[in-house]
Design a protein that fits this description.
- The termini are far apart.
- Helix 2 packs antiparallel against helix 4 (about 55-85), helix 3 (about 40-45) packs antiparallel against helix 4 and helix 5 packs across helix 11 (about 310-315).
- The chain is α+β, with helices and mostly antiparallel strands.
- The chain has 2 domains: about 5-85; about 110-330, Bira Bifunctional Protein, Domain 2 (BirA Bifunctional Protein, domain 2, 2-Layer Sandwich).
- The longest helix is centred in the N-terminal third of the chain and has 31 residues, at about 55-85.
- It has helices at about 10-20, 25-35, 40-45, 55-85, 110-125, 135-140, 175-185, 225-240, 265-270, 285-290, 310-315, 330; strands at about 125-130, 135, 165-170, 190-195, 210-220, 245-250, 255-265, 275-285, 300-305.
- Bound molecules: 3,4-dihydroxyphenylalanine (DAH).
- 3,4-dihydroxyphenylalanine (DAH) binds near residues 252, 282 and 304.
Length: about 325
């Protein structure tokens, strides 16, 4: 006995569960034929419409066509799912397998050195801070007490992005001292690794862009002794127990007193020198505290900055800074 409009609900359910159970495109196509083909079950119902009393035909036709549309939609949705599944490889890629021709990568020596420095500072409670490489004159110079006629601000030394309003590429990470202090009250204990830019021509020891790490410690009663102890701890961790440091008077506009740090170890002797200049540092200048809204009567602090390439060159005995940027695998594979 053929089906009638009264079986429509049951037919719809049968179609839905068959579609959901279809495991591949061939099965799905058979279901399509079974229900919607020219001899299909839903098609059959439509063909019988003529046998119904005239007044019942429009309502019945509407119901059958409604179910037909829904079933068509379900077929198409299932088809998409099965097609996607068919496109997926049976054995998905295992990204942990070694490459066929390339060896596994590793971190750039400068990244390794930066991570080691940061790790040492974290041990003694320093947090990592960051700031923008495109800076303004205020954060890079003015707030650091560097006057407008200071030679460092000359267009010979600094890359200015525009001449009006003068955004620039930061010449040192010291600008981040200002940003951090303006953003939060003391105490502060941060290190700032980052890229800096200067109008140096590339030669064996200079490059127009290089990396620095800045340190800033602000609290009550901070002394030069704290500065020396901290720097010694970090350099011994980084470059060995035999490291000796020497602090020489110097001038920076944002510290008073200012000092330069020289460094000596078997590594410097290997490079043919007893002492190598390695960092600038000092006690934060009261003017700088005033500029960021800290009371210099209550707070004291020290700051330092050193070049990461410099440290990496000493650590690994590299005599040409440009090797770091050439991405020559014969160089990089050694680290
Ligand atoms: N900004 C200096 C430079 O680029 C390094 C430096 C010196 C940073 C003394 C400091 C500091 O924080 O106190 O050469």
């Amino acid at each position: 006995m053929s089906e009638s409009v009264n079986d429509l609900e049951a037919l719809h359910e049968a179609a839905s569960s068959a579609i959901a159970a279809a495991g591949d495109l061939t099965q799905l196509q058979a279901i399509r034929v079974q229900f919607l083909g020219s001899k299909g079950r839903i098609t059959g119902l439509l063909k019988q419409l003529g046998k119904l009393p005239k007044e019942d035909r429009p309502a019945a036709g509407q119901r059958i066509n409604g179910v037909k549309q829904v079933v068509e939609g379900q077929l198409n949705d299932r088809k998409e799912v099965l097609e996607m599944a068919a496109a997926k490889p049976k054995h998905p890629a295992d990204f942990s397998l070694p490459g066929r021709r390339l060896s596994r990568g590793r971190r750039h020596p400068l990244t390794q050195v930066t991570e080691d420095i940061v790790r040492s500072f974290r041990k003694i409670g320093f947090a990592v801070a960051a700031g923008p490489e495109i800076e303004d004159e205020y954060h890079c110079f003015d707030a650091l007490n560097t006057p407008a006629d200071h030679p460092a601000r000359d267009t010979q030394d600094t890359f200015y992005v525009r001449t009006e309003k003068r955004p620039l590429l930061r010449t040192h990470t010291s600008s981040v001292q200002i940003r951090v202090m303006k953003n939060q009250p003391p105490p502060i204990r941060i290190v700032v690794p980052g890229r800096v830019y200067r109008r140096d021509n590339a030669d064996a020891t200079h490059n127009p862009t290089f990396h620095q790490i800045e340190g800033l410690y602000v609290d009550r009663n901070v002394t030069v002794g704290d500065l020396k102890g901290t720097v010694e701890f970090v350099f011994r961790e980084l470059l060995g127990k035999e490291v000796k440091l020497r602090f020489r008077p110097h001038y920076f506009s944002y510290t008073e007193p200012s000092l330069e740090i020289d460094f000596s170890s078997p590594l410097t002797r290997k490079m043919g020198k007893e002492w190598l200049e390695i960092a600038g540092c000092g006690m934060v200048h009261p003017k700088v505290f005033e500029n960021v809204g800290y009371d210099p009567e209550c707070w004291s602090g020290w700051a330092f900055g050193f070049g990461i390439e410099r440290i990496a060159m000493i650590r690994y005995g590299i005599n040409d800074i440009r090797l770091f940027y050439e991405n020559d695998l014969r160089f990089l594979n050694q680290f």
